[in-house]
Amino acid sequence: MSFRNKLLVIFLLSIGTAVSVVAWGVTRYTRREFEALDSQRTEALVAQFRKELAQRGEEVVRRVSGIADAEATTKMALALAQSSADPSLYVRDATGLAQEHQLDFVELVASDGTLISSAQYPARVGYKNDWVTLDKDWKSQSWFLRREDLPDSVALSLTAVRNAMTVGNRTLYVIGGVRLDQNFLASLVLPEGMRALLYRNFEPAFVASALAEPAGGLTDAERLAPMIEQVQKQKQTVVKTIQWNSDPASAETFHAWPLLGRNNNDLLGVLLVGSSRRELFALTNYIRLIAVVVGAAGLLLGFLLSWWVSARVTRPVERLAAGAHAVAAGNWQTRIEVTNTDEIGQAATAFNDMTRQLAGQQERLRQSERVAAWRELARRLAHELRNPLFPLQITVENLQRARTLPPEQFDEIFAESTKTLRAELENLHTIVGRFNDFSKMPSPQWQKVNLNDLARNALRLFEAQFNAVGRPAVTPELFLDERLLGIEADPDLLQRALQNLVLNALDAMPAGGTLTVRTTSRTEPCEGVRLEVSDTGSGLTAEECERLFTPYYTTKRHGTGLGLAIVQSVISDHGGTITVSSESGRGTTFQIDLPLRPQSTAATPLPSSNIAKGAAAS
């Protein structure tokens, strides 16, 4: 990935992450505040319910007290206190009292608990209501919730009990109450999105028909059964969210409060306050929509901004990279245009200063190389020519002395001296020819070449030396990749380089051994072929491996030290590389890597061979 693309991705990720974090934070904060507000509204509704319940209960207490304190009730108490009293005379009085005082339930009970009159259940007249007589002073008691049995059903009553006039040891009790049902729930003022439900708990198991709301029966009431059953077991407030259908907006959070009877042990009902989460869902979706719109706009703006910033940052960097590649390719005159004074501009200025210094150093190095090449050439020539010059000098001196000898002896000395002169002159010619060949390597003549064929031909030329009489045998081994691709090369120059390597391997194995030639294909760093020439000789030291391709350097007693330098020059002219690896006592391996086709047909010799060529050209 390019530097510009990295900057672009970083900008977009930063903006996208920031928008996502903000949207998540706002959504979380909104949800928390909404739930807090919902909890406050629910508590307010429950408080309202309790207040309404208390007010309604106090009203029931006043109405029941009014019945108990009425003159007619006092007369009834006095009449019933007589021994000859007939309670059947008052069987229908409770109905009239209920209508007069607007009560749903009214019952008159004698001092022994016998029911005298009942407005809601006349058939129970004569039955005992023993629970009323357990408390002799009902005037100090407040209202309470009570289960009211009816002829065909059961109701939840808001009940109060009061004592009428006591005559002797006989007391008349008045029981009155009103229904607690959906009509009572309808009187509550509910905020938008909230509703109240009432469950009358008269059965041990959940009964759907016992759950009512102001509008009537509740559909799908069974969904609330686990919540109500939990309240029945724990008799504590329970909070639960119920999703009525697949739409998340249908979710509703319910708070369920237990409604206990007079002794706080009987669970007579459950008040459920539901709060719709549709508003929260809509608000959350709206926030997400805003976040998506803001995020898209931010990403677009970030893309444009990052593209502009990355362009301003990466263009100078790209120019620096292009300049570095140009310098690496050998263009020492490369300069980069400086357009600003920031860090990138300072780097460009430093790069230009560096290339100017490198160009100057290159020129000084080139001059030093020429001088060194002349000196090295002169030293090598002097060394090579010194040996044949001495015999020439002695031979000339012998001829000068032979002039004074008789003709017969002079002719003999002259013949021998001329023979010596010819041999030494031939030797001089050979030395000069080798130096001349190295300094005038021919340019490659490109054609399609099969490296396997060159390897076979090179070994075939040395078959006689592999099994020469009087020296240990050398065993050649060929490991050739038959799928090897053809390369663009000069077959004569490559053949000459291979011969030099084979000959060098033979010289390294005076006691015999194995010569291995191997070819393989390669793909890195570029597509090409590889040739390896290995011997099992005594090997080389690390210092010898480093200097092995230096012109005029040799590890042999006899030799000019130009063979491997010529090999390196040939390989370099073909755009390839040659390396050597050796281990003392285990032989040496030369590895040649050649491309399928050179980048240029021009010879590009390495600096090591450039020395001798520069000297020869000068």
Question: Would you kindly provide a written description of the structure presented here, covering whatever features stand out?
Answer:
Helices cover 50% and strands 20% of the residues. It has 618 residues and is α+β, with helices and mostly antiparallel strands. The chain has 4 domains: 70-179, PAS domain (Beta-Lactamase), CATH 3.30.450.20; 181-276, PAS domain (Beta-Lactamase), CATH 3.30.450.20; 343-436, no CATH class; 441-617, 2-Layer Sandwich (Heat Shock Protein 90), CATH 3.30.565. The longest helix has 67 residues, at 3-69. It starts with a helix and ends with a helix. The relative contact order is 0.07.
- Characterize the main sheet: 6 strands, antiparallel
Q: Helix amount, in percent?
A: 40-55%
CATH topology description of the largest domain: Heat Shock Protein 90
The domain tally reads: 4
Task: List low-confidence stretches.
Answer: 601-618
First-residue to last-residue Cα separation: 49 Å
CATH H-level homologous superfamily name of the largest domain: Histidine kinase-like ATPase, C-terminal domain
Quickly count the helices: 15
- Compute the CA-based radius of gyration: 59 Å
Number of strands: 18
Coarse morphology: rod-shaped
CATH architectural category of the largest domain: 2-Layer Sandwich
Q: In terms of structural class, how would the helical and strand content be classed?
A: alpha+beta
The level-1 CATH class of the largest domain? Alpha Beta
Give the percentage of residues in beta strands. 15-25%
Mean pLDDT: 80
Query: What spatial order of strands do you see in the largest sheet?
Result: 8-7-6-11-10-9
